[in-house]
Every structure is written in structure tokens, then in C-alpha cells.
């Protein structure tokens, strides 16, 4: 007997801005992702002030899924996918974000895409906001600093829930909503459309924006359930468990606080309440946040149906010699390398057991079904003399993670809905804007400089994953 139920959601995951291209097609507006240049391992992506001619913006064309989706979906069916996770580009539906009426051409595109998927019995799994909010909401409203964003987001959610209520059952509200807890420039911009100003406290801005997003997410959950009670609406958290560097109890406490600080979004979205330590922290810091009693009721009533999460790597943390009582020193400054693990070319630690650990952690803490909606190995692929890519390293990474996922289900009794490896078709990296940081089983002929025919091809991992799905995870 197989570990997984026969309706287990084997699939693949992408996000609109990382593959669609067609950045101005069908009346689409400019999104956050459209003002981010290409970087690489050493060079961070630049966030430009509007579109500057002559700069390389990799998301403008991406892999032109917008123009290739029919052929691509056919290939996804051949791969054997049961589900396909993507996002709806907010800017196709509301190009500026603050219009009264949605853009019909954008709505039509997703109707056609979902029809195409359903034709092959591939279930769409849809993220409402995946690093791609309208840029206009950044320049005119200051992004999620502004309470008005709740209304704009809810309007967008309502329109797409209504329109696709008979085509889409699985939804998530905000992708990796907790990325911004690291307070780095990239995370604050892609999550919340925020560029921290000199007179601002990044931490306070993050908590305020995060609160508005939590309210918006909870409202979307309630509205979605009203529109179609069969909807399954999840949160989406970036999971990278933090381990203690030594046996010192202070390191254990530090690791615990790092987890709490990273997953407060989970507490709010899954339990419907703020954790005690965080309420005390807000008071101590005199943050004076705009959190109303009504907001707290909304959050309580809008908890999610499942936990969608990404898993790539784990982290290790060490307490400071002068660690303050609240253990809230900037957390990322205290990360150390894990000597027990190997790393990818981008320095991401490879830790399959960490996936099982994470599944147990989520399950214990929130007691909700889990959906692994991202996992994968970014690597440079090389073609052999026949143009074939032998990506054993990728199969090896995925196999080792699926093995741990099976143990979490079989031995630990975790409730797991599905598994969608990230970027199963090569696409633009979110972190670096590169094409050559590849996750795919399907190769796309395009490089970091933006050159290539966009032709699709199958890597060795294509046949391997097909067999994994066909055997319901038995044949790894
Ligand atoms: P890239 C950092 C840490 C964990 C997840 O990332 C992350 C990031 C972003 O770099 O993002 C997720 O493309 C995200 C996807 C992204 C994927 O992981 O930087 O949800 O949009 O592409 C992989 O290698």
C-alpha cells in the first residue's frame, strides 16, 4: 500500500511574474517585479525608480508562458501533474490596483489557462499575491504601510474568487508572507512594496504592514468561504527551521525565539491571534501600531484551512555573549554555518531531515493539514554533446526530500495534502533574477543575459518525476 492517498496532489509550482512575461499584454499594469533588474550570486537585484531604459528586467519577458501556455500545459500533462500551482498577477486584473472595475482581458487569460489545465484534469492551486503587487500601490500609497491596501486586496480577491469559483478550489493568500521578518530590503519590497525611509524603523514598518496583510488575508478567507464553502484557503509560509548552534541553553532559547519571530504570521493566520511574547514586545518598544479591536476579531474569524509552505534549507543560530533578555537581537546576524550539511552553489544548505522536522513542527503547533507548495534545488545545468541534461543532483535532492516527507506521514502521522516542487519548468529566480539558477525538469532555452530561443526540452528528471507521480511516490 502506498503512503499517500490516491488523490494526493502531486504537482509543480511557479509564480506569475517568474514565468508569464507579457508584462504589458492585455492591459497588464506594472508590478513590483517589473522594476527589479537581473542580479546574480554576488550582485543583488536593483529596485529601480520606475522602468529605466537600457536596464535588464528579466520578468518582462520571463519564459513567455503568456504566449506558450497551451503547449506548456500539454507538457505538464505529459509529466503527469495532478495539480499546478501558480499565482494570479494582480496587475492583469487591476493594473494599478485602485480601479473600480477589473480588466476583462486579464480575467479572460486566467479563464483560458484554468480551462486548459482542467482539460487535462490538472487542478489549479492559486496564490493571490506572490511578490507582484501593482507598482502604483507602492508609489501612490506607500505599499502595505497603508491601511487602504486591505480594501484594494480584498476587492481583487473577491473578483477572482467569484470569477473562478467553479474552476479553482485550492487557494493561498500571500506567498511567503514571513520573508519580511528578516527585515532585508528585498523581503520588505517583494512582500509589502516597502522601501524603508531614513526616518523609519524597519521593524515597526514590517509589523504594521504585516498586520494589515494578516487582516486582508483573514477577510479573504471569510469572503472566499462565503462565495464557495468548498474552497480550501491556506496561508503560505517560508519554512527554514532554525537549530541551536550548541548545547548551550541560551542557544536553544535563541533558536526558539528565532522560530517564534519568523512564524508569528503562522500564529495569526492559523490560530487567529497574536502570541503573548509579541504583544509584550510591541509594548516594550512603544511601537503604537494601528491594530484595532475589530481587526483582532477579523483575524480570529478568518483562520486558514491548511498551511502551504516552502522548504529549501535550514539555519543555525547562536546567542550573543550579551544577549538581551528578550533574545531579539537582529536574528540574521547570528546565523552560523552548519558543518553537518552541504550547500548548493548559492549557499543554500541541503537538509532533507529538516523537512520532516518542519512538518512535525507545523503539525504540532497548528494541527492543520500541510501542503508543501515549494521545494527544489537551484543549480547550473550543463548540456552534453547531444544537448541532454543529466540532472542527477536534482533528482537526488528531490528523492531525499520525498523520502523524509514519507516518514513524516508514515511514522509521524502528519496530514499532508500534496507536494509541488518549485520551478519544475525553468523560470526567473526571485532572489537573483537569474535564468541560469535552474530548478526545472523542463529546460527553457534562455540565459542570464536574456538570450535564447525559449524552446522547451526535457531533462533527465522529467522521466524520473513522471514515474514518481505514476507510482504515487513509491518508485523514487
Ligand atoms: P530563488 C528566499 C528564501 C526562501 C524562499 O528562490 C524564497 C527566497 C527568495 O529568494 O523564495 C521562494 O528563485 C519564492 C519563489 C522563489 C523560490 O523560493 O531565489 O516563493 O518565488 O523563486 C526560490 O532561487
Automatic annotation (TrEMBL):
Hydrolase is among the record's keywords: yes
GO molecular function: beta-glucosidase activity
Residue positions of the active site: 374 (nucleophile)
Highest taxon above the source species: Bacteria
Keywords linked to the UniProt accession: Glycosidase, Hydrolase
Transmembrane segments annotated in the record for this chain: none
Stored Pfam families: Glyco_hydro_1
InterPro entries hit by this protein: GH, GH_1_N_CS, Glyco_hydro_1, Glyco_hydro_1_AS
BP GO terms, sorted: carbohydrate catabolic process
GO CC annotation, single: cytosol
Classification via NCBIfam families: PRK09589.1
Family: Belongs to the glycosyl hydrolase 1 family.
Name of the protein in question: 6-phospho-beta-glucosidase
Organism: Lactiplantibacillus fabifermentans DSM 21115
Amino acid at each position: 500500500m502506498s503512503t499517500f492517498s490516491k488523490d494526493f496532489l502531486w504537482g509543480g509550482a511557479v509564480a506569475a511574474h517568474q514565468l508569464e512575461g507579457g508584462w504589458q499584454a492585455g492591459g497588464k499594469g506594472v508590478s513590483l517585479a517589473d522594476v527589479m533588474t537581473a542580479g546574480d550570486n554576488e550582485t543583488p537585484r536593483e529596485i529601480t525608480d520606475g522602468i529605466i531604459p537600457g536596464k535588464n528586467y528579466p520578468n518582462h519577458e520571463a519564459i513567455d508562458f503568456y504566449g506558450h501556455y497551451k503547449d506548456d500545459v500539454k507538457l505538464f500533462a505529459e509529466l503527469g501533474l495532478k495539480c499546478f500551482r501558480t499565482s494570479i498577477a494582480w496587475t492583469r486584473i487591476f493594473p494599478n490596483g485602485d480601479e473600480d472595475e477589473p480588466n476583462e482581458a486579464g480575467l479572460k487569460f486566467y479563464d483560458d489557462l484554468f480551462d486548459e489545465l482542467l482539460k487535462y484534469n490538472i487542478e489549479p492551486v492559486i496564490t493571490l499575491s506572490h511578490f507582484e503587487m501593482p507598482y502604483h500601490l507602492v508609489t501612490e500609497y506607500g505599499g502595505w504601510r497603508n491601511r487602504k491596501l486591505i480594501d484594494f486586496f480584498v476587492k481583487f480577491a473577491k473578483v477572482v474568487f467569484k470569477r473562478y469559483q467553479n474552476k479553482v478550489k485550492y487557494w493561498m493568500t500571500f506567498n511567503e508572507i514571513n520573508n519580511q521578518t528578516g527585515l532585508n530590503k528585498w523581503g520588505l519590497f517583494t512582500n509589502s512594496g516597502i522601501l524603508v525611509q531614513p526616518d523609519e524603523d524597519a521593524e515597526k514598518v514590517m509589523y504594521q504592514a504585516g498586520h494589515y496583510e494578516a487582516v486582508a488575508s483573514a477577510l479573504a478567507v471569510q469572503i472566499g468561504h462565503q462565495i464557495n464553502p468548498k474552497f480550501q484557503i491556506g496561508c503560505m509560509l517560508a519554512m527554514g527551521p532554525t537549530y541551536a548552534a550548541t548545547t548551550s541553553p541560551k542557544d536553544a532559547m535563541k533558536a526558539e525565539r528565532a522560530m517564534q519571530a519568523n512564524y508569528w504570521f503562522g500564529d495569526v493566520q492559523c490560530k487567529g491571534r497574536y502570541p503573548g511574547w509579541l504583544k509584550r514586545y510591541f509594548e516594550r518598544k512603544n511601537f503604537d501600531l494601528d491594530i484595532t479591536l475589530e481587526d483582532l476579531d477579523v483575524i480570529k474569524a478568518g483562520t486558514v484551512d491548511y498551511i502551504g509552505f516552502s522548504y529549501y534549507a535550514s539555519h543555525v543560530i547562536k546567542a550573543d555573549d550579551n544577549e538581551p533578555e528578550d533574545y531579539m537581537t537582529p536574528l540574521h546576524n547570528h546565523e552560523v554555518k552548519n558543518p553537518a550539511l552541504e550547500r548548493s552553489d548559492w549557499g543554500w544548505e541541503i537538509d532533507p531531515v529538516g523537512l520532516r522536522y518542519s512538518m512535525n513542527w507545523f503539525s504540532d503547533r497548528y494541527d492543520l493539514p500541510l501542503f508543501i507548495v515549494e521545494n527544489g534545488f537551484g543549480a547550473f545545468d550543463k548540456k552534453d554533446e547531444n544537448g541532454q541534461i543529466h540532472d542527477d543532483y536534482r533528482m537526488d535532492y528531490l528523492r531525499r526530500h520525498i523520502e523524509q516527507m514519507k516518514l513524516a506521514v508514515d511514522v509521524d502521522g502528519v496530514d499532508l495534502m500534496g507536494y509541488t516542487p518549485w520551478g519544475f519548468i525553468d523560470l526567473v529566480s526571485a532572489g537573483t533574477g537569474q535564468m541560469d539558477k535552474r530548478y526545472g525538469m523542463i529546460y527553457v532555452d534562455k540565459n542570464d543575459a536574456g538570450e535564447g530561443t525559449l524552446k522547451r526540452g526535457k531533462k533527465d528528471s522529467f522521466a524520473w518525476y513522471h514515474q514518481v507521480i505514476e507510482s504515487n511516490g513509491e518508485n523514487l
